[in-house]
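Bench notes, afternoon.
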Amino acid sequence: MNSLGEVIGTPAAQPWACGCEDCRYGLIYPPPVDTTVPLYILRAVQMKRNMLTFCTCRAGHMRRQHLRRVLSKIESGDEKIPRAMGDEIDRYLKETSGVPTVRYVAPDGREIKVTA
């Protein structure tokens, strides 16, 4: 039996897209998500606000490229954001703006970002 990822062509069908040992799906310790906004839109907004740390692996590069395209569509008006969704994004950003984020360098030289 095929997994759901194999059927719909998500990261499970392309193992590199799951990330490496330092990340998950190309992101290093992304902020928590507690909203009904579609994740791809929320991650694009987080990227614009420098809330994301991308891994240097293939998944990280691909994730960054994808979110740049999404952000470009949002900013150009090609991706319409309903008013209610915009309000939800604003609420989420206000709630997470006070969440402390700590960056430190691990013994092996990698920069790590930890969100409390």
